[in-house]
Amino acid sequence: MTRHPERTQPARGVLHAQGEHRLGSSNLAVVLRVLGHRHRLRQRDHWTPQQLQAYQARALRQLRHNTYARSPFYRRFHAGRTDHPLHELPVLTKAMVIEHFDELVTDPAVRLAEVEAHLAALDGNQRYRGRYWVAATSGTTGRRGIFLWNLDEWVTVLASYNRSLDWADATAGLTRRLRMAVVSSTTPWHQSARVGATIRSPWVQTLRIDSGDPLERILQRLDRFQPQVLVGYASMLRLLASEQLAGRLAIAPEVVFGASEVLTGETRRRVEQAWGRRPFDVYAATETAGIAAECQVHSGLHLFEDLVLTEVVDGDNRPVPPGVPGEKLLVTVLFSRTQPLIRYKLSDTITSSDRLRCPCGRPFALIEGIQGRVEEALSFPARSGGQVMVQPAVVHGVMDGGPAEGWQLVQEPGRLAVLLAGVPHTFDDAALADRLRRELRSRGV
Question: Which pLDDT band holds residue 321 (cuts at 50, 70, 90)?
Fold first, then answer.
């Protein structure tokens, strides 16, 4: 039920270091371009809703014009609908992207077989054909996706992650240096690793730790590094906060970011108890880069509506009202040109907020949070007949209330196996099982 690696890690910022602080000329050029884009994104925080809507309409028009001119796949896929509104266009899936990859991309020289070979040999910041950054999803939803960006697009990717830092007042720059620890994935083809490998600078000293490393080793490295900014999978933040409270970790981060998994209320509480800081939730995907992030008001996550258009829909791709969880999310990446993504399906369960504006004054709409992925929902026989789906957030509500440092649910024929880690010997298994049964029954199971 945990929400894991396909989602990229947030709050990398524009500037990264991995033990090397020299900037090559190409990296310096990227840094300068990202700083310029960061300035433009900051100006958009002060737009009116009317300015935002006008920009969205213009950017979508430009995206579709470029796509129809250069992508044979989209000319067929949207045939007869090229002048229709966005919500009338067909939905694009990851399987379709991979199946039609060579005709979907707008550069006829790009070939999927070559891109896959490039990824297999990747061990640093090499670019495919000397111009494209490439990353892949982990395939946890059934099939691996491969995505690539040219320089302009990659600068926007970096700037979108920096926005998360900016809104938490944790941005580095020419006059401000930071120490950042990132506990996530160090796999070379993971987008967060690509972001980290792109820019190495003296302004942000970054310690990257693989979340799969032994816990004792992770604690030792964090203790030595003493990060000012801590970024990690939500489950790792919960574990690290528990270690801090137990006296086995002694760090004092000024800002904490959770990503790639549901940031539950219990995890938030433990983080605040351990470090006296409210964690910032960030929502991103390999396909889109940043999608939404919390500001310092913590009243929900602001959608990056100037970068990605989102549609919260049900199983039949119909929009759902605010306050009602959707079954999936359709995204249109406004800055994508090399590999256009128009009404692309993400299998995330999102709830739009009914609050029109945040007290921070930003024009961007809010979402209440991310409940999980459709693939992580559990299906049970319903008392009334048929099947009932139980979303990850329901199970989190039960499991996060216990003393376990980690847990996993595995659905097996006729039963639900509950695996626990780090629980005291006096823990009452039967009481937890009873609470879980009651919660499932209350949902019609």
Answer: very high
Q: Are 63 and 86 in contact (CB under 8 A)?
A: no
Q: Looking at residues 364-369, what average pLDDT do you find?
A: 90
For tokens 């990851």, the residue is 94
In DSSP terms, 309 is beta-bridged to 332
d(CA 399, CA 433): 10
> Is 338 in a helix, a strand, or coil?
coil
Q: How many CA atoms lie less than 13 Å away from 282 in the CB half-sphere?
A: 32
Q: How far apart are CA 83 and CA 88, in angstroms?
A: 10
CA–CA separation, 14 and 342 (whole Å): 26
DSSP secondary structure, 166-222, as one string: HHTT---BTTB-EEEEEEE---TTSHHHHHHHH-B-SSEEEEEEETTS-HHHHHHHH
How many whole angstroms separate alpha carbon 444 and alpha carbon 422? Answer: 31
Domains of the chain plus CATH, in order, are: 25-374 (3.40.50.12780), 377-442 (no CATH)
Q: Are 372 and 349 in contact (CB under 8 A)?
A: yes
Find out whether 373 and 141 touch, Cβ atoms under 8 Å. Answer: yes
Half-sphere exposure of 178 (CA within 13 A, CB side): 26
CA–CA gap between residue 161 and residue 171 (Å, rounded): 10
Residue 277 CB neighbour total at 10 angstroms: 15
C-alpha span between 274 and 173 (Å, rounded): 28
Q: What value does the mean pLDDT take over residues 115-123?
A: 91
- Cα-based distances in Å from 311 to 26, 66, 314, 332, 388: 37, 22, 10, 9, 24
Least confident of 107-121, 155-169, 256-270: 256-270
Summarised one tens digit per residue, pLDDT across range 49-96 is: 999 999 999 999 999 999 999 999 999 999 999 999 999 999 999 999
In whole angstroms, give the CA distance from residue 65 to residue 59.
10
Integer Cα distance of 425 and 296 in angstroms:
40
Contact criterion met (CB below 8 Å) for 154 and 184: no
- The mean predicted confidence, pLDDT, of the chain is 85
pTM of the model: 0.80
> What pLDDT, on the 0 to 100 scale, is given for residue 15?
32
